[in-house]
Amino acid sequence: MSRRRISAVVTALALSAAIPVLVPAASASAAACSSYPNWVAGQWYATGDIVRYTDGRAYIAEHENPGYDPVISTWYWEPYNCDSGSGGDTPVGNFVVSEAQFNQMFPNRNGFYTYSGLTAALGAYPGFANTGGDETKKQEAAAFLANVSHETGGLVYVVEQNTANYPTYCDWSQPYGCPAGQAAYYGRGPIQLSWNFNYKAAGDALGIDLLNNPSLVQTDSAVAWKTGLWYWNTQSGPGSMTPHNAMVNGAGFGQTIRSINGSLECDGRNPAQVQSRVDTYQRFTQILGVSAGANLYC
C-alpha cells in the first residue's frame, strides 16, 4: 500500500468516523420511467416529487429544492427504481449489479458509499458496465468493484488516514496552484483521488469544480463514485490502457491491476496484493453469476 504521483490513485487507508452517513434510496413501486415529467433546472420541487432526468432514469426528491441537479445534489434527490418494485433485487436502470448484490459484496461498507450514489454516477460514463454482452458487462462491474474494494478496505475508508501526507499533494508548479489550500488534495473516494492536478483533471472532465471544492469527494457520494469512474474509464496510470478498455477488449482483469497500481504490484513486485485483488474479483463474479475470464494476473 503506497501513494503514487503519476495517477489519481493513492492506496492509503482512511478514517471513516467523521464521514457523514447518507440515507439509502427509498424503495419504489413499479412504474415506467417515461411516465414521469422531465426534470427542469430552476423549477421548484417538493419532497416526494419524481422526475425523469436527462439520463433517462427517475429520481425522487428527498428534500424540497429549487431545481437542483439530481445527479450532483444527492442530498436532495435519490434514484427512484421505476422499472421494478423488487426492493433491491433488480439492478437500477441498465446497471448489471443489483442493490442486494452490492450489499452482499460490501457487508461492512461505510454508509457514505451508497448504492444510490453509485447508480447516480453511472450517467457520467454510460459505457461503463454497459459495453458488449451481458458477461462482459458483469465482468467489468465486478472488476471495478473488486479494485475499489481493495483500495478502500471493502468500501470502509473514504479519506486517507495518514494526515501527515496531506500537505504533500500540492504541486505549486501548476499554473492554477492549490486554491483550496496546501493540504486540501489528499486521497478521497473509492479510488482515492489525490493531488491538485488530478482533482482539476477529474473536475474538468465531470463538470464539477473539484480544484476549488475537493471536499465534495468526501461529502457527496455520487461525486465520489464519479471520480472513481473517471479514473477507470479515462486513465491508464502505469499501464498501457484504461481499466475499462482492458475489460471490454478482452485484455483481462490483470491489466486493470496494472493500470491502477502496476508499478508497485505487477511483474512479481507484490504478488500478495495482486492475489488479494484477484480473489475479490473472483468472489464478485460468482455473486454476479459469470466466469472471471482469462488473464487474471499481471
TrEMBL record:
The keyword Signal applies. It holds the Pfam family Glyco_hydro_19. The active site is at E151. Keywords: Disulfide bond, Plant defense, Signal. GO terms for biological process: carbohydrate metabolic process; cell wall macromolecule catabolic process; chitin catabolic process; defense response to fungus. Disulfide bonds join C170-C178, C266-C298. One of its GO terms (molecular function) is chitinase activity. Residues 97-298 form the Glycoside hydrolase family 19 catalytic domain. Residues 1-30 form the signal peptide. This is Chitinase.
